[in-house]
Amino acid sequence: MPRASRRPIDKNLDHELRENFASLISSLQNSYEIEGFLNDFLTKEEKIMLGKRLMLHLMLENNYPTSNIETSLKVSRETVRVHKNIWQNAGSIYKEIISKISKKERTRQLFNKIESMLKPLDLAMRARSDMRARAKLVSGDFSEES
Questions:
Q1: Which pTM does this prediction carry?
Q2: Phi and psi at residue 34, in whole multiples of 5°?
Q3: Residues 50-70: pLDDT tens digits?
């Protein structure tokens, strides 16, 4: 993951830079401007990292198990642990925003895609001790159990 330089800058300058960045982001008028700005401002790796981080926090908000987060986002158990800690210590404004985002239709559709990706994995895990699950897995039937 990209990291900030280890060479510290003046605390007042750091504060001004953060304030200026927040002001810039809040001045963007619509999703077209936001997307245009972020596409040119962020590197490909930063976009991937931030997208995964947001989805990880959305999954934590929706009580997804660590193993499902690891599998679907291709992140390590340690990354999930670190972000669980960040999530638990996050402020109420942040949690309120994440909660609001997680209820949007577009986010719900993304959760549905993730869950459909995880069905074969869940079935494979159950197949270790469940003959019906094993038969469904072998037949390629990943639908919900009756």
A1: 0.73
A2: -60, -50
A3: 999 999 999 999 999 998 899
